[in-house]
Amino acid sequence: MIAPVQEHYYAAPPRIERGWRHHLFDTDGRAYLDMVNNVAGVGHSHPAVTEAVTRQLQLLNTNSRFNYEAMVAYSERLAELLPESLDTVFLVSTGSEALDLALRIATTATGAEHVAVVRSAYHGWTTATDAISTSIADNPNALTTRPPWVHLVDSPNTYRGSHRGEDAAQRYADDVGRALAEVHASDGSVAAFVAEALYGNAGGVELPDGYLSAAYAKVRDAGGLCIADEVQVGYARTGDHFWAFEDHGVVPDIVCVAKAAGNGVALGAVVTRSELADRFARQGSFFSSVGGSPVSCAAGLAVLDVIRDEDLQRNARVVGGRLRDQLRALAAKHELIGAVHGKGLYLGVELVRDRGSLEPATAECAAICERMLELGVVVQPTGDYLNVLKVKPPLCLTASSADFFVETLDHCLTTGW
Ligand code: PMP
Fold first, then answer.
1. Nearest residue by C-alpha to atom 14 in ligand 1
2. Has domain 16-34+311-415 been given CATH number 3.90.1150.10?
3. Is the pTM of this model over 0.90?
């Protein structure tokens, strides 16, 4: 009865009924190293999250129009983690909701309707977030079917994008300028520019230095707002900072959060400046029944405690750095690995048939993921050509499990798939 279009991993998926830290267990008792689960950011079945949620469920779980402590406490904690200007929190349940609401805030606050988005991106499944999703892996017709208010800008990918040299950041930022000029030339006005600060869907590709600040400046000059989608790459994952945008020294106007925020309990947020929230209020009230419910906020608070108490940001930096170094060493041994992207515990291992032409090794990537499952590792393809192994495990990944992943990939690439 499940809609066939509903995605699932693997041709013959194992039945997974348990998870613990960065491992999953199937009903035959097999353990798998989970290298993809950035939703379970602090690890599967974390006792602190279980306890907080259980306790809250026993007390109260209701819609967010009531007055209870967890919502205030979580909103305060979240805002404290963000730059001072981002002081107003909206609570929702998912990433799609967060991006959808961010678009509504931007269009209402600016009175404009046009939105610039980078290619190869995914921002959600609702009508508006689907409209700004440009990944041709998710939707092969994405580039030709965007509505007129969506303007595509070049994917700032210095590995396989249109600019790869030293001036790439400026050239990609110029392309943002070109898209904004197009809007003005057609008598439109710009509401927002939406981007991830580490290019998740493209395969964990790092943005060239200076790109985001130059792009943000152009968008603001054009009267638009800058929306950072931190749904995948935020929450301590990149290691140096809590938020990926901090790596680029920029302050967005609107930040969207979800996935890891609740460690699998539905929780998302939009954080913005109070003056933008006030302008949004002119279009009526806002309410999402279980967005910010007592249980989801209790989960959200427990997750933030665990990230702090277990020093998971540092773990992302240290174990992620070790993993990246080892994967890069593996690239010297196996021609198929064209590049290792990303930072912290958001990495991408890009597979190519030819390092000159960069022909994507799509079929190989799919087969390698199936073989890795047999060898006890869950890893999945991503990127426009589904030729990048996405590496975004729970933040509690240990050094020995990182080594196991590299050894298993080495074994797979050496003995075949
Ligand atoms: N933004 C990004 C960058 C995402 O990766 C996703 C989900 N993959 C979303 C938004 C949408 O989040 P959700 O699936 O929670 O609606």
1. 95
2. yes
3. yes
